[in-house]
Design a protein that fits this description.
It comes from Arenibacter certesii. This protein has 395 residues and is an alpha/beta fold. It has 2 domains: 9-83, no CATH class; 89-387, 3-Layer(aba) Sandwich (Rossmann fold). The chain has helices at residues 9-21, 43-52, 61-72, 103-111, 120-124, 149-152, 156-171, 177-193, 203-213, 222-225, 289-294, 374-384; strands at residues 26-30, 36-38, 79-83, 89-92, 116-118, 133-136, 197-201, 277-280, 301-303, 312-313, 322-327, 332-340, 343-348. The strands form 2 sheets. Strands 4, 5, 6, 7, 8, 9, 10, 11, 12 and 13 form a 10-stranded mixed β-sheet that branches. Strands 2-1-3 form a 3-stranded antiparallel β-sheet, sandwiched between helices. Helix 1 runs antiparallel to helix 2 (43-52) and helix 1 (9-21) packs parallel to helix 12. 46% of the residues are buried.
Length: 395
């Protein structure tokens, strides 16, 4: 999985998932040649690699043992992690949402990793317990319709989307969309605390935490929910309820395409596509295998990309949350991870790792042109994360 040895990094994750789905174990060699996968040998696996265009090498038993011995050496910041099962994956998205508008569904499809769509009805019916991994993407959990009001309030797709959301809320027994989304957020929170893995990108990251902090508080202006917001709602936020962020200030102007001070998009100043990168943090593979796993890549420097939520203000991230990727010059975190109850969450800023400034109506990204995308590899690291064998806690 290093830069020189693998011609299709993304499909290599799909091969690994496919092997796991056949009830065979895989070893993930953290920090060894870009985070390579050690698969059992077999004619069917070789053939599948050839069909999918994935590079592989055949190792003898002696060669394999020498590699594993080297990895286990205390002098090497490397580790071997056993992957035991293919996680069952759910993507939170409307049923009619086109798959090319979501980086995760695009890369899952490209890597040939199966997933199922769930939305508010399934979440409220407690169907999340059927899944090991849940993805949230360009979603607004605050009931403000993505804060597209300022630019797109007369667009047919905005009007139709608002009407559909209001009809869904009524069908599910809620007076407002914001109340329905708050109930959904509580269910997702409980899923994570019970041991689930949640991965969120773009506006699903900060809007999720805002909805948690605003539980029982009306932060929506009349054009969103038909009545005024609560007076002084900023002072009523409960940051103790959130996963990742604290002390953030909500954006009160409904014409502004921004949720709060969490996102750094409007604070970035003169940053250009050609110089926009973020660096991955280095962790101890033997003592911190989880963040190491999530940062596996063939480069430590990843191209930046924008979204409604591009990156996170460092000062507003809770001290218990790990920063996995950052742009120090801008004082922003791009990729963060934390523990909540018995489960885990990862927040990844930006919309599409290979579409720098994704806009409404832009054409889909063709991943055939980006088979070794470092930004997309970070997504797939999270997909395989629940497959890892749980270690006994050191005492």
């Amino acid at each position: 999985m290093d830069a020189e040895g693998q011609k299709n990094h993304l499909k290599a994750y799909g091969i690994t998932y496919w092997v796991l789905s056949k009830q065979q174990k895989v070893q993930w060699l953290l920090n060894y040649r870009g985070g390579s996968f050690l698969l059992p040998d077999g004619e069917n696996i070789r053939r599948e690699c050839q069909i999918r265009g994935v590079s592989y090498e055949i190792l003898s038993d002696v060669q394999t043992q020498n590699i594993l011995d080297g990895i286990s050496s205390p002098s090497q910041n490397q580790e071997s992690v056993i992957l035991e099962k293919a996680p069952k994956i759910a993507v939170y998205t409307p049923k009619n949402n086109p798959p090319w508008d979501d980086a995760v569904t695009m890369v899952l499809s490209y890597a040939e990793i199966p997933y199922e769509k769930v939305y508010d009805e399934e979440v409220l019916q407690d169907q999340l317990v059927m899944y090991d991994w849940l993805h949230l993407h360009h979603e607004d959990f605050t009931g403000q319709y993505g804060r597209f009001y300022g630019t797109y309030r007369t667009a047919p797709w905005y009007i139709e989307g608002k009407q559909n959301a209001e009809a869904m809320a009524q069908k599910l027994g809620f007076a407002k969309v914001s109340e329905q989304k708050s109930a959904v957020v509580q269910k997702i929170r409980n899923y994570v605390m019970g041991g689930g893995f949640m991965f969120a990108m773009c506006s699903a990251t900060d809007s999720f935490d805002i909805a948690l902090a605003a539980e029982g508080v009306d932060i929506c202006e009349p054009m969103f929910d038909g009545d005024p917001s609560d007076a002084n709602y900023q002072s009523k936020l409960n940051y103790g309820n959130t996963f990742a962020f604290t002390n953030f200030i909500l954006e009160r102007n409904p014409l502004v395409y921004e949720f709060s001070s969490i996102d750094t998009t409007r604070k970035r100043g003169e940053i250009y596509k050609e110089s926009d990168y973020f660096s991955l943090m280095e962790f101890s593979a033997k003592w911190d295998p989880i963040p190491t796993m999530l940062c596996q890549n063939h480069t430590a420097l990843v191209k930046g990309f924008m979204g409604q939520t591009t990156a996170f203000t460092r000062e507003e991230i809770k001290p218990t949350v790990l920063v996995l990727g950052e742009n120090k010059i801008n004082g922003e975190a791009r990729y963060i991870h934390g523990v909540k109850g018995r489960g885990f969450f990862t927040f990844y800023g930006g919309h599409d790792p290979e579409d720098y400034q994704h806009r409404v109506g832009d054409p889909k990204t063709e991943l055939e042109l980006h088979p070794s995308s470092p930004g997309y590899r970070l997504i797939l690291n999270n997909v395989l994360f629940p497959a890892a064998k749980k270690r006994n806690q050191k005492t």
